[in-house]
Amino acid sequence: MVSRPVRRDRGLRGVVIQPYRGYGTSDEIYLMGRVFRQPRLGAGLPMGSVLKEVGDVARRLGRWGLGRVKVKARMAGTSATLLTDRDGYFHIELTPRQMLDPTQHWHSVELEVTWKGETATATGLVYVPPPSARRVVISDIDDTVMHTGVANKAKMLWRLFVQGAESRTAFPGVAEFYQALHEGASGGEGNPMLYVSRAPWSIYEVLESFFRLNKIPEGPVLFLREWGLTLQRPLPRRARHHKHDLIEDMLARYPHLPFVLIGDSGQHDPEVYADIVRRHPDRVEAVYIRDVSDTEARAGEIRQLWRETRMAGSPLVLTDNSAAMAEHAAHIGLVPTNPPTGAPTTRERVSVKR
To answer: What is the pTM of this model?
Structure first.
């Protein structure tokens, strides 16, 4: 079987290459993906039906990563062959030999795998910031872009693994605010949008659909992690420093661009972002935290972090809606002076204006 180039697996049976959106510069690009086999569960069932969603979940969990498989990659006159890890994941770093078109933000990487006589191909996409880019935006996904309910583990797992893209809810004003950040105050800046989540890679295509349905700018990559929730490994792996390490890596890869960090108060985003500000006080323009906590103790902890980031020179904004974030972003010149509006503020807003 030869599979056509895919961004989503579309229920294909057999060997599938699933590239995740990559990022890079004119000197080096980075792309991650996975090679796996999967059953054709959920195919032929009506879209939006419970059986279809359950079949899709079973198909994703039933994937069998193909370890130690050769992946051939080609881009801009450069080629490389690498092996997948034990779970079928691959990491590609290429140095383009040909000059990349500066008018194009997304660049193609051709992928090919042959396993036991079965060949699969796919086209990966890599985002290279244009010369007009003025900053990098890193945003959490869960309870920052869409409502997940991380505090309630049972509901969170249901939303993560069972609900389709159409059933997931974006926070009001997120699409407009993120589009404004992507375009920048002058418009057309093409600022890269990077997304981080603690969710597993197995829901990648669901998140892609969610971003497109809600008109949220798609980022160079959805930084997820391998939970190991497959038939091969039923228990998730721990990744305590996952987000912090990824941000540090991005700071090193884009040394000439400042950063904007967006997260929520429910987990450890404020603590992680405050530590990044302490380590790189001249690299973070603003920190935006969506307030999803209901305890005064948590609010007190974030106030302390607000003081620390202020002393380091970066404002921290705590609010429960995107409109307040957009207003502050407009005030410091990140987005146009007529920022997008969202739902009215109903909780405490903590902010510092430069």
So the answer is: 0.82
Helix (H) or strand (E) holding 316: strand 316-319
Q: How far apart are CA 176 and CA 321, in angstroms?
A: 12
Label residue 279 exposed, middle or buried (CB < 10 Å: 0-12, 13-18, 19+): middle
Q: Which residue type occupies 122?
A: A
Pairing of strands 193-200, 136-140: parallel
Helices 174-183, 322-331: axis angle to 10 degrees equals: 20
Q: Determine the structural domain holding residue 311 and report its residue range.
A: 136-331
Among 81, 106, 127, the domain-final residue is: 127
Q: Minimal CA–CA distance to 267: which of 247, 289, 285? A: 289
The string of DSSP codes covering 58-108 is: HHHHT-EE-TT-EEEEEETTEEEEEE--TTSEEEEEE--SSPP-TT-SEEE
> How far apart are the C-alpha atoms of 316 and 54, rounded to whole Å?
41
- Segment 136-149, tens digit of pLDDT: 999 999 889 988 75
